[in-house]
Amino acid sequence: MEYKQEQSKAAQEENSSFIRISNVSKHFGDFVAVDDVSLDIGKGELFSILGGSGCGKTTLLRMLAGFEVPSGGSIEIDGLDVTRLPPYERPVNMMFQSYAVFPHMNVEKNIAYGLVKDGLPKNEIRKHVDEMLELVQLGDFRRRKPAQLSGGQRQRVALARALIKKPKVLLLDEPLAALDKKLRERTQFELMNIQYETGITFVVVTHDQEEAMTLSSRIAVMDKGQFRQVGTPKEVYEFPDNRFVAGFIGTINTFHGSIASISEETLSVYSDELQLTLPALGTHPVEVGQEVDIAVRPEKIFLSRDEPDNPDDVRIQGVVDDLGYLGNRSLYRIRLANGKIVQVSSQNRRRSVTRFLEWEDKVWISWRPRSAVVLVD
Amino acid sequence: MRKTSRFTTSVLAFGYAFLYIPLLLVVVYSFNDSRIATVWGGFSTRWYGALWQNDQVLDAALLSFRVAFTAASMATVLGTMAGLALARFRRFRGRTLFSGMITSPLVMPEVITGLSLLLLFVSLQQLTGWPGQRGFSTITIAHTTFAMAYVAIIVQSRLAAMDESLEEAAMDLGGRPLRVVFDITLPLIAPAMIAGWLLAFTLSLDDLVIASFVSGPGSSTLPMYIFSKVKLGVSPDINALATLIIAIVTIGVLIAWLATRRTRSA
Amino acid sequence: MAGSVNRDNLWQRVAIATPYLWLLLFFLIPFIIILKISLADPVIAQPPFTPTFDEQGALSISLDNFRFLLTDDLYAITYLRSVVIAGIATLLCLALGFPMAYGISRAREQTRGLLLLLIVLPFWISFLLRVYAWMGLMNNHGVINNTLLWLGVIDAPIQMMYTDIAVFVGLVYSYLPFMVLPLYATLERMDLDLVEAAQDLGATRTRAFWDVTWPLSRPGVVAGCMLVFIPAMGEYVIPYLLGGPESLLIGRVLFDEFFVNRDWPLASAVAVVLLLLLVVPIVILQRNQARDAEAAT
Q1: Best residue in C100, C187, C217, C222 for a mutation probing chain B (most B CBs within 10 Å)
Q2: Cα gap C53→C39, rounded to integer Å
Q3: Which numeric CATH code is attached to C68-296?
Q4: pLDDT above 90 (res A62)
Q5: What is the ipTM of this complex?
Q6: How many Å from the N-terminal Cα to the C-terminal Cα in chain C?
Q7: Judged by CB atoms within 8 Å, which residues 207-226 of C form the interface with A?
């Protein structure tokens, strides 16, 4: 995790606009798939575009690949305007969601395809194919047909096939969606290693927020053809820009309220729901009296039987409505006096008091003042 | 979203023109007043009237419809049984021969099917005295035989696509196999049976070669009558007859298409 | 309980036995009879062939019919001509049918249904009448010649009817749906990502077609070609109505041998040889279908 962010920072300083998407739109008839979107992606980044189905992420990726021509705006890659270039003339390769491994060619032929189309000499192609087979650990399978491979192996063929041309940008459309959970976790780290080794800029499209969080140096959260937030996984998770991002990534508790006072560090919000004034961090300019939401992640909330003693913390009483034991952590639904349900997630690190909580037990929930953020829209 | 090239579009246009212009011209010339079918002599519907007066056409059409209706119905019963046997009864003696006999009529040249069936009827007549006269019954048997293969294939592929657990669920709930066939299987394959019946009906109406072999003197089906006329060249009353058939088929197919489209979208 | 099990068993047996017996009687036995009669000699009698066993009960078979087919050039040439004409017609169907199937499979979903319907519709209209439609078009005084004369492109009518050209037109016209439908089925379920992947890796649209689309449509191509070639080989109506008297095809020879010359044994021998010629394409077709069905699951 650490090197990733360093790398991303370094990359951004070196060349913060390796891919430059400027005011790009795409219309299909009346339907606006991508709505006036601008974005810069740095060289060597592992960038994710995250969103639900129909949010426009795939269309954006297909415009980067050259399968769709934007209705407006332009796309530059490494200083070259590729907006209208056909896919076969772009320094970009793609790993398809279906993998699109050619079923009538064996592993070797699949991987070599791009270089054969470039007219490279045979021995050179052979050399590169060997390198790629080693990179994706498929050396023993070179003569197999795709039908004789597992899903994970097919995925690696698709990856090798796209990487062999040493593209400036590798596009990955839902790279892990077709794999089962165990394999998905392993492949995630393989992808990150390969990205690190090759230094190629990766642009990943995914609907899986966990995948985006672990893989990426930066994430763009997309909805209805527009970016709702662009930032590092930490920024997007800890400081969601708006209700959509807060709700889309992870679970979050929100309380309605209005701004009571503004200081340099924090904001005070009076919550009509809780009849309490709560402190929270804000990233957007607000004014006193403005209606906002306060958001707190379940894992930032502590549970205790007795009233917590830190007077700075927010402390509210409730009863256990429901609980679930998930092994490494437990989930609780705490019902407050006004009937509102608050979700709490606690690590089962210690055999703490919370392990012995039962339904309808009276508990206190509490969180640090800096754990809550204000959501404006 | 994915464009088709100009080449593909022009071939498509050419292909459809190739398929439909000849039919269109037949329709146009059926309203031609002139006796010489290729010279335009003004608009007229006289050939439709002539058709109505022509007893030979009416007799042949009646025979064709009787044969087609009977053959299609028998082919649907036999073909459904065969399709069920192939899709649901996995092992029985002679299965390979059975599935071979089901699929072979689909690719058999008509002249061979016709010849072989005629030789069978002649041999049967020598041995048993039946069929004393070739006509309705022999044509119906011949058409049933090749049409049941089509029904069997349609039913079988429908059954193959259908979840067998539906039938298993019915048996689990206490249905005996025969009951399950009538309660569950048949209602589910009914669309395939209807499609099979329609196909069998059309194939029977359409057949010339097999019917020519297995029919006897005095019994002509509609295609046999048409063939005897068009051997001599283009004739205006055949244009009128063709137009009627084209109109009936087009309306029928359009209704069927609209009906399936509505059920699919509903 | 035992009674009901037996009843269920009985039903299964009936469901198998009824179509089974029907096909044995009306499909398999007729073939044995053809084979038997092809080994008999013609006589002027009713029926016009010698019995397999003579009065003394001795087996009486003769290979004379097959010997005759082999020695008389007419038959060898006719078989060859049939293979060539059916083959060329098949290739013409493929050349026209492939782009059509391709275009339909890549059309928008709403139009696709209509385009397919328009391919199938002529198939429901009488085969004979569709062939007949071309007679009015290709006549010396037919629509094509009249139009060309009127336009001044030609001075005298072109002879189209009663030539091989007319036979090709008739064959392509009649069997085009058999080519388009299996091709469409293959092209429609092809993963379009594959074509895009090829383009992404540097292939132009044309290149991607030959590298990916064409090899992957092989099952459809094989099925379509066989479904056109096999019936075209035995075709009787098209060469009779559109072809010239000298353009003999084997289906017509069989028909004439039987009805005109009333030589039943020779007609049977012609049928047996035709069937032997068709065994190869029929086996290719059935293997192809089996493999395709396997790949689909």
Answers
A1: C100
A2: 11
A3: 1.10.3720.10
A4: yes
A5: 0.87
A6: 38
A7: 207, 211-212, 215-216
